[in-house]
Specification:
By secondary structure, this protein is an alpha/beta fold. It contains 14 helices and 20 strands. The protein has a ten-stranded mixed sheet with strand order 9-8-7-6-10-3-11-12-4-13. Strand 1 and strand 2 form a beta hairpin. Helix 6 packs parallel to helix 8.
Length: 539
C-alpha cells in the first residue's frame, strides 16, 4: 500500500512539473490560421482608414502585440497547413494542393504533429475549423496528430450553411457528401443547423469555459473565413450596403450568400463582411480568455495561410500594395498577414514591428523547444527516412531578446528562393499582377491580375525585398554575382526536396470497386460523411 502511495505521489509530481518551466506555468497558446486573408484586407495594413475594411479587434491586438512583417507561408492552403503542423518547410512535406481523398495528401503518416509534442509537455490540445492536411487514416486526422478534440472539415472548402463538400475527388464523381468531423467520428446531427463559423464559435466557447486553468492550453482555430464560397449571414452582409463599384463573378464558386438569398453578387462587399464577422469572433474569443484569467499568460499567433486569391470567380480579396496573390510565388502570395499578441509578450515589444524572416514551420520548434521545453526532434519520421523538422526557435526574436532572426533563407519551390533581403525567380512565375487599393471592382475583369505572368527564364529575376517589397524592379542584371550564388544554393537545396509519397493501401474497401476508396468508405462506413478511409478499426 505504501509503495502504491509513493507511485501515485511521484506521478502527481511528474504531471505537475510537466506544466511548468523554470518554476513558471507554461503559457497558453492560441493560434489562429485565417484562410485566404489578403494583405490589404486588414486595417493595420492600410495607411489611410477605409470604411470598407473593418477589423478593429485585429488592429487593436496588433497595437498591443508585434506585427510580423516578413512571416512566410506557402502560396496555397494544404502546404501551409501541413508545414505548420509538421514543422517542415513545404518543400519537405508537400507543395501540392491534393484533395484529401488521396492517400498522399497533406502530411505523411509518419511525421509527428505539434499537438503531440505539446501534449507530452502537459498541454491540453484542441482544434476547431479547417484541417486540409490529410485524412487517409485515423493518424492523419487532428486527433491522430495530437489534438484531444476537434470539430473540423477535411477538404479545401465546404458549404458554410450545409457543410456539404465543395472540392474533392468524390464531388467530381457526383457524390454529395457532408464534410464535418467531431474528433473520431462524423459530426452527426450538427451539419445543416447553422452558419459554420457560429458552430465553430460554440465549440471554442465550450473549450475555453470548461478548461482547467491549472493546465496550459493549446487552442488551434482555423476559420473557414475568408475562403470561398463567399457566404455570410444576411445581417452581416447588410452592414456593408454602402459599398459600391463592385463585381459579381464570385457567383461561379458561390451558389448563394445565405439560404434563400439568391445568386451571389457584390463579391468585395461579401468578402469584407466575412472578414468583419471573423474579427468579431476573434474579439469574442479573446474576451472569454481574459474573463477566464488566461490572457495574461497567453501567446496568441495569427497568420494567413496564404495571400488573397486573385481570380474573380474565387474571392474578393486584395493584397495591395504587394504583387501577386494565392497560387503564385510573389510577396502577395507568400508574405502572410501575421502578428503575435497576448500577455505573455513583454511590454518592451508591444506595439512594435518585427522585420526578421519567420516561416510558419518555425512555430513547431518555437512552441516545442522555446516554450514547452520539448525536443522538436521527430524519431518516428527519422526511423521512416523522412525529412527532419526544419522549424527554428523564434522565441528570443518575438520576446525581444534578439533583433536578428535565425532564419536566413526560404526555398519556396523549384524556381523561387528567398535569401535574406533578396528573392530569386526562375522560369515563368504566375499570378504576377498588382491590385489597386479598391480591388476587385466593376472594371477588374478587364485586366485580371491573375492572368499576368513574369517570364524570368533560366537567367532569373532578382528582387530586393527590403528596398522593393512590391517587386517592381528586377535587378538581376545589376547583381549577376548574387543571382549566380542564389541559383547555386537553390540547386543544392532542390536535392533535399520531398513531396508526400505515402502509398495507397486499399484494405478498407472491396477490391473490385470502381470509385476511390475514400468515396466508398464515406458512403458505406461513415453514413455520407467524409472521413478516414485506410487502416480503420475492424477493417
Amino acid at each position: 500500500e505504501t509503495e502504491k502511495n509513493m507511485q501515485s505521489l511521484l506521478l502527481c509530481v511528474l504531471l505537475l512539473n510537466c506544466c511548468f518551466v523554470g518554476g513558471k506555468q507554461l503559457p497558453n497558446i492560441l493560434f489562429v490560421l485565417v484562410d485566404d486573408l489578403g494583405w490589404g484586407d486588414v486595417g493595420f495594413h492600410r495607411e489611410k482608414p477605409t470604411r470598407a475594411i473593418q477589423t478593429p479587434v485585429m488592429d487593436q491586438l496588433v497595437q498591443e502585440g508585434t506585427e510580423l512583417t516578413r512571416h512566410y507561408v506557402h502560396y496555397a492552403c494544404t502546404p501551409t497547413r501541413s508545414s505548420l503542423q509538421s514543422g517542415r518547410l513545404p518543400v519537405h512535406v508537400t507543395i501540392d494542393l491534393r484533395n484529401p481523398d488521396k492517400p498522399n495528401a497533406g502530411i505523411p503518416e509518419n511525421m509527428t504533429g505539434i499537438a503531440t509534442k505539446l501534449r507530452s509537455a502537459g498541454y491540453r490540445t484542441h482544434m476547431v475549423g479547417k484541417w486540409d492536411a490529410g485524412m487517409a487514416t485515423p493518424t492523419h486526422t487532428p486527433h491522430g496528430r495530437g489534438y484531444e478534440t476537434s470539430l473540423n472539415y477535411f477538404t479545401h472548402k465546404n458549404n458554410y450553411w450545409t457543410q456539404k463538400d465543395m472540392q474533392s475527388g468524390c464531388l467530381e464523381r457526383g457524390f454529395n457528401f457532408t464534410d464535418l468531423w467531431d474528433t473520431t467520428k462524423p459530426a452527426y446531427g450538427m451539419n445543416d443547423t447553422m452558419y459554420e463559423e457560429w458552430m465553430f464559435l460554440n465549440r471554442l466557447t465550450h473549450i475555453i469555459q470548461n478548461h482547467n486553468t491549472s493546465e496550459p492550453l493549446f487552442l488551434f482555430y482555423a476559420p473557414h473565413i475568408v475562403h470561398c464560397p463567399l457566404q455570410v449571414p444576411k445581417e452581416n452582409w447588410e452592414k456593408f450596403s454602402f459599398m459600391k463599384d463592385d463585381e459579381g463573378l464570385c457567383h461561379q464558386q458561390t451558389p448563394y450568400i445565405w439560404p434563400g438569398g439568391g445568386q451571389a453578387t457584390h463579391c468585395r462587399r461579401t468578402y469584407h463582411a466575412m472578414t468583419n464577422l471573423l474579427d468579431g469572433i476573434i474579439g469574442n474569443i479573446t474576451t472569454q480568455l481574459k474573463d477566464k484569467g488566461m490572457w495574461d499568460n497567453l501567446l496568441m499567433v495569427l497568420s494567413a495561410d496564404n495571400g488573397g486569391p486573385l481570380p474573380l470567380a474565387e474571392s474578393g480579396a486584395s493584397n495591395y500594395p504587394l504583387r501577386g496573390g494565392k497560387y503564385g510565388p510573389f510577396e502577395g502570395g507568400v508574405r502572410g498577414t501575421a502578428f503575435v499578441s497576448g500577455g505573455y509578450l513583454p511590454k518592451k515589444v508591444r506595439g512594435t514591428k518585427q522585420n526578421g524572416i519567420v516561416h510558419i514551420a518555425d512555430w513547431y520548434t518555437t512552441f516545442a523547444k522555446g516554450i514547452a521545453g520539448v525536443n522538436p526532434f521527430d524519431p518516428v519520421a527519422n526511423a521512416s527516412g523522412l525529412p527532419p523538422v526544419d522549424g527554428m526557435n523564434m522565441l528570443p526574436l518575438i520576446l525581444g531578446e534578439t533583433t536578428t532572426s535565425p532564419r536566413v533563407e526560404v526555398p519556396l519551390n523549384e524556381d523561387a528562393y528567398i535569401q535574406g533581403d533578396y528573392k530569386l525567380l526562375l522560369r515563368r512565375a504566375s499570378h504576377a499582377g498588382w491590385q489597386g487599393p479598391m480591388y476587385p471592382n466593376a472594371s477588374s475583369h478587364l485586366s485580371p491580375p491573375n492572368t499576368v505572368h513574369l517570364d524570368c527564364g533560366e537567367h532569373g529575376c532578382l528582387f530586393d525585398l527590403a528596398k522593393d517589397p512590391t517587386e517592381h524592379h528586377d535587378i538581376a542584371k545589376e547583381m549577376p554575382h548574387k543571382v549566380k550564388q542564389m541559383k547555386q544554393r537553390l540547386m543544392e537545396l532542390r536535392k533535399g526536396y520531398y513531396n508526400n509519397n505515402d502509398p495507397y493501401h486499399n484494405v478498407a474497401c472491396p477490391k473490385d470497386i470502381k470509385i476511390p476508396c475514400a468515396c466508398w468508405v464515406a458512403a458505406h462506413h461513415w453514413g455520407g460523411f467524409l472521413g478516414p478511409f485506410e487502416q480503420l478499426p475492424g477493417k
